[in-house]
Specification:
Layout lengths: L6 H7 L13 H10 L4 E2 L5 E8 L7 H4 L9 E6 L5 H20 L3 E2 L8 H8 L10 E5 L7 H10 L7 H4 E3 L1 E5 L2 H4 L3 H8 L10 E6 L2 E7 L11 H20 L4 E4 L2 H4 L6 E9 L1
Parallel strand pairs: 6-8
Antiparallel strand pairs: 1-2, 2-3, 3-5, 4-5, 6-7, 8-9, 9-11, 10-11
The structure holds flavin mononucleotide.
Length: 282
């Protein structure tokens, strides 16, 4: 995904929008967004995911019904489909859909990740889902209302959405016993700050990162097991988003590196942490 603006600015600019103006998206803006999602986007685990802009059909006059009254006024939604639900395809959905969300943000459109509060049955018909295909999450897209609705305020308050935990909860050095200071993060300090600002379901912020020399190891804090058939979908979407922020920021800073699964990390036994993937500087 190509951005005209700095991704650091776009990440800072994004926040969840649950109330939209009854105004269609400008043609030129729509064209740019459609162009950005014309080709499937590829995740770190090589899943190719096609995204679509879906206009609500006439029988669903507004987004209220589709989103269990969570989103008001939206007429258009961004929707993607994965061929089959596995931990890797879901992480890749998080990684690629966040790029689409950030592109919409760059275009001054409001968005909101919805991983729970949407009616899959309505969308399945519109998208014509096949076999094992699933829609892990969607987002409304449109012009935000100028005022924060009472609904947004209540939700924001309930999930403390404008807040993020401090550095010491997320970033570690060598192992989970030593926290990583901003100074020790050096040239990665701003990139990690952008990971800290990643959105997450219920604002749970469960990603954890260990810096070990030139390597960054990404984990999810959870007691839930991750197996090919059983896994916490929302937490995997969240880590995909964190990986996206990290990747886009190091690319913008022109810091070269690559993603790898490290076998010995995968074999680590931990009650609370699940290893996902590592980034290694070249
Ligand atoms: C994977 C994922 C799923 C989410 N699902 C929902 C949802 O179903 N309903 C909702 O109102 N918000 C949902 N959110 C939005 C989060 O509550 C929001 O991103 C978080 O509180 C941080 O606030 P911010 O996006 O304004 O920074 C979801 C976010 C993520 C990343």
């Amino acid at each position: 995904m190509k951005f005209q603006e700095s991704v650091f600015n776009i990440i800072r600019k994004r926040s969840s929008c649950r109330k939209y103006q009854n105004v269609p998206i400008k043609k030129q803006t729509l064209r740019i967004l459609e162009h950005a999602i014309k080709k499937p986007l590829k995740g770190l685990f090589n899943t190719e995911i096609k995204y679509k802009l879906v206009k609500l059909p006439d029988e669903i006059p507004d987004s209220n019904k589709l989103t269990y009254r969570m989103v008001r006024g939206a007429k258009m939604f961004l929707v993607g489909v994965i061929p089959q639900a596995t931990p890797e395809t879901v992480i890749d959905y998080g990684y690629t859909f966040e790029q689409v969300i950030l592109k919409a943000t760059e275009l001054d459109l409001g968005t909101c990740w919805l991983g729970q509060t949407f009616r899959n049955d309505y969308l399945a018909k519109v998208i014509e889902l096949k076999n094992d295909e699933i829609i892990p999450a969607i987002s409304p897209v449109g012009y935000p209302t100028n005022t924060t609705g009472i609904r947004d305020s209540i939700i924001s308050l309930a999930i403390r959405s404008k807040r993020r935990k401090s550095w010491k909860h997320f970033f570690f050095q060598k192992d989970f016993f030593h926290t990583l200071s901003r100074e020790a993060a050096g040239k990665f300090s701003e990139t990690l700050e952008m990971v800290r600002w990643a959105p997450s379901s219920r604002n749970s912020q469960l990603w954890r990162i260990i810096k070990d020399e030139k390597m960054f190891h990404f984990y999810i804090e959870t007691t839930e097991k991750i197996t090919p058939t059983k896994f916490p979908k929302l937490k995997l979407l969240d880590i995909g988003i964190a990986l996206c922020h990290f990747d886009l920021c190091v690319q913008e800073q022109n810091i070269k590196g690559s993603w790898q699964k490290i076998a010995e990390k995968e074999n680590e036994k931990s009650h609370l942490k699940r290893y996902i993937i590592s980034w290694i500087e070249k």
